[in-house]
Design a protein that fits this description.
Blueprint: E1 2-8, E2 21-27, E3 35-44, H1 47-51, E4 72-79, E5 89-92, E6 99-103, E7 108-109, H2 126-139, E8 147-150, H3 156-167, E9 171-176, H4 179-189, E10 193-196, H5 202-209, E11 214-219, H6 223-230, E12 233-241, H7 262-265, E13 269-272, H8 282-294, E14 302-306, H9 311-320, E15 326-330
Helix pairs in contact: 2-3, 2-8
The structure holds NADP nicotinamide-adenine-dinucleotide phosphate.
Amino acid sequence: MKLQRVVLKEYPKGELQAEHMAIIEEAIPELAEDQVLLQVEHLSIDAFIRTTFNEGAFHGTADLGQPIVALGIGRVIDSRFDGLNQGDAVFGPMGAQTHAVLPGAMLQKIDEDELPARAHLGVLGVTTGLTAYAGIVRVGEVQASDVVVVSAAAGAVGSCACQIAKNCGARVIGIAGGSEKCQFLIDEIGCDDAIDYKHEDIDERLKALAPDGLDVFFDNVGGAVLDAALLNLKEGARVVICGAISQYERTGDVKGPTNYLKIPERNASMLGYTVFRFAEEYDQIREALAEWVLAGQLALPEQVEEGIEQFPDALIKLFSGGHKGKLLVAP
Ligand code: NAP
């Protein structure tokens, strides 16, 4: 039996291209004691994957010729690990491949009674729903009286962050690229307003939509979007740095915010976080998210690309913005 996997062929210098990756075929290794063989069902397309192609990356730098890292959901085909049996759904570091052989101890068994297993990559996923909850509720401490602005709002973390902020009672303005995504933010995500950063002046629109300024800016993008938000902070505002996707493909230095002096001028704060900081609260956060999902107060649309050969293009798509909600690959 063979597996197919996506490996990094060459380190990209700047924009990622499909040619930087290759698909290879290999025999599936024999199971050792305490290992399980999995059919990979869904892979989470995450920005951190691209950062592992850079030198000195926070999540470690990928080795050429090795499978690209990816979190995913797998179904147990064969098990030599007590506690995992054929047919069980599990979450873990699957890697960009059709099948995975992993130590059972690295996997988390998933309860599929109420929500499909792939929800553990999206709305209940560490890199998506949990990240959004941690940023909005725990770091941003969003209150009902707040005006909250979210960048990359039509993406996975952003779509969840907007809805979580709405569930906290806040007024929410989403920033996304293009009129279709802005309509999606209003119609499906429940944003009060949306700004199309590709065709509108963010600073002008924020001044019109929130003349008294922003209480919380939840940033996924960095660069010019962050700079425009900094010009519109209310006294005591909180800027939450979740990510900076506009900077991950830069070959030189990351471009920091030019307007950072607005932080002291407005007695504001800028706080960054990684979701891992909240690891001890994952179960509790997941419960809160699932409650909203089951009550119809939180929904994350998914875009699923079929076939492992779609993985390179899907990763590129995350940066070009060719998706709404959570981007997944079904190998
Ligand atoms: P996503 O939002 O589903 O996809 C990324 C989106 O970013 C794209 O859809 C695109 O939307 C937008 N984008 C890409 N390049 C851009 C640019 N140059 N300027 C403006 N917008 C750009 O991705 P995600 O997985 O949910 O990740 C969102 C952010 O969360 C990333 O920054 C990621 O690093 C961060 N994150 C942080 C943590 C943490 O622990 N802090 C954990 C997970 C993820 P448009 O079409 O609107 O441009």
